[in-house]
Amino acid sequence: MKHVHLFTDGACSGNPGPGGWAALLRYGRHEKELTGGEGLTTNNRMEMTAVIEGLRAVKSPCHVTIHTDSQYVLKGVTEYLQGWKKRGWKTADKKDVKNRDLWEQMDALLGLNKLEWIWVRGHAGHPENERVDALARAAVPKRESAPSAAVEPDAPA
Asked: Which of the residues are catalytic?
């Protein structure tokens, strides 16, 4: 089975505010960078989008090692997701799960590959994490005017 490494990061200028995401896929000596951004979002949504888009780019079943600096994504997938689904997308204290749309997209992708999750400390000199951080920050759209829609802020990643 092929082994792909997926390095991800999200960035936000304000939370909420304009945000960017980046994913770096590595298979042997081959690499692919993916980036994108949104005009009004949260840091957690960008962290999740980076993982989702990275997993979407894996075209055949692989062993994928996901390197993320987001405790929100890591714990969401490895500790909370199954419980949220069992409770009809409610938290343990019966509140709606934030970012349900993205959690559902992530959930649909999780079973397509053999996944391994690795947490890396952000801004600590990890070369690939620094690289995707720079790509995500570069993908943040420049503010042109005041946002017209409200986005509920998330807890920091």
From this structure: 9-10, 47, 69, 123, 133
